[in-house]
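To whoever picks this up:

The parser on our side crashed when reading a file containing two proteins. I've narrowed it down to the boundary between the first structure block and the second sequence. Both blocks are reproduced below exactly, byte for byte. First block:
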Amino acid sequence: MKAKEFIERYYTERKGTSSLKWDALKETFGADDLIPMWIADTEFKAPECVIESLTERIQHGVYGYSYVPESFYEAVMDWEYTHHGYKLQKEWIRITPGVVAALYWSVNLLTQPGDAILALTPVYYPFLDSIKDSGRRLVACDMAYEKGVFSFDAAAFEKAIVDNDVKMYILCSPHNPVGHVWTYEELQTMLKICKKHNVFVVSDEIHQDLTFD
């Protein structure tokens, strides 16, 4: 589908729909004539198949308690294997309301109040909030930066872990907001360092499908 056709078919005006992206600009930033590039939200409708499935469910008319069907787990496992060659097992999967909730749960499950948790900065702010709000100690390790490009500084990373007795590292892959797609070698280095110092790794990979070859 060409871009012009896509826009004509899916573009939707969001202003005046209680859109956080558009309608809360003045309240959030003090002006409403801004270009809201601060949030992962779009002006495009969901695909027809999604709308049709949701409409069919809504027309049933009863919205009582449901259990998670086997088809859900099969869809997740099939997607990971088909697109990433990664074989999941059903017993590994847990369901959360979203990534942010999963971060908070992981912090509380795997660490104790006062423990040090590391994040590579700059990073998506709920990473930092999940640490501070849970009574843990935030250890921010700045990524290396040169000529507009962010990269991984292995020496600084390990030093931050050792100096602060870090118990957990929250990894963002690919990294949001700098857009860095970690190389295989970088990930291997990170994980070897964390294993060496007994550091739990919680990896947010919600953008795993938005990578280039």
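<<boundary where parser fails>>
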Amino acid sequence: MEITRKLSNAKKATQFIFFTCGLGISSWAPMVPYVKDRLVLNEADLGFLLLLLGLGAIAMMPVSGILMNKIGSRKVIVASTFLVALSMPFLVIIPSFIGMAVVLFLFGCGIGTVDVAMNAHGVQVQNLYGRPIMSSLHGLFSVGGLLGPLIIGFLMKSGLEPLYAAIAIALLLIILAVSQYKYLFDSDFEKETINQFTQATEGKSLNKNKFQWLNGSILLLGFMCFSTFLSEGAMLDWSAVFLRDLKDITPEFAGAGYAAFSIAMAVMRLLGDRIVSKLNSKTVVTGGGLVAVTGVILIIAGSLPISILGFILLGTGAANIVPIFFSEGGKIPGVSPTTSISAITTMGYAGQLAGPALLGYIAHLFSLQIAFGLIAFLLLAVAVIYGLKKNI
């Protein structure tokens, strides 16, 4: 009875943490134009700052696994949330380019760390729960991502200075994280359950090899995460440009594609656990990948309404692929979930960060349609590879 209550509380707490992370990341988006104007930045300078945010996240992702193995995921989750929250007010008051670069790098460090820790914790809760929960967790992350800009925008529209709006969000992040701390698994319980789960499923203890990142299953899942995250990053950075330049949509409506993609993804992730339970992970990844590929083809080849439908299909198909990969990563024989999730997340976010830049280079050499074609090819590769594999 005690373990059932502990598990139920841990699941709810993890849901709050996913929501908190989505809220924290997305709250930065409405601040970007304000920062650009205040520091008088050109597009190249702003691009460099945004790159530092991503580099901060990627730099901390491998370190997150080490920290979780030493002190447990809940301490890492709360500490990194504090770093995100404490960085946020400085994002709107730092007066220099160098200062902003440092703060954005630290902000990215916090985001990357909490992202790995919450996914590792979510996988452990799911392993004990005995049924899929990762899709709904990522769905709540998406809900937080949709609400962040709305809350910041509402506060600013109500006459609140950007600094005070940032402080309000920062306090909310801290309150959410601290309130859930006691319900998250402590480090002793995590170590015990990880070993018990590994021995029960594979009959052997965790592998202590320092080069667990080179595990073939980790590298395969990492590649597939890289490909899927690349498609998400491409939609964020290139969808509006694609619609404006190639579909002749007016600039004020150029975000319609990404909005359609994001809403479809959030809805499907909230429904994802039930879908995975009724079908299976192979059907969801393979079928979802093919739906996503169809969506990209419609985006490229269709008229404007057909292209918007393509964005919806892409979000629908891709929504539950990454949560399944995280679930698979938490069950690799002999590898701690904290290690595997940090590795897979790092490779995935490398795709989200470097992918849009790669697409920009391809678009410059050839065309934006060819660049989007690469997205379709990679998603098709994910569907085929996962469909043909026997097990991870």
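After patching the parser it read the second block fine. Residues 2-202 form a domain with the Growth Hormone; Chain: A; fold (CATH 1.20.1250.20). The chain has two domains: 2-202, 212-388.
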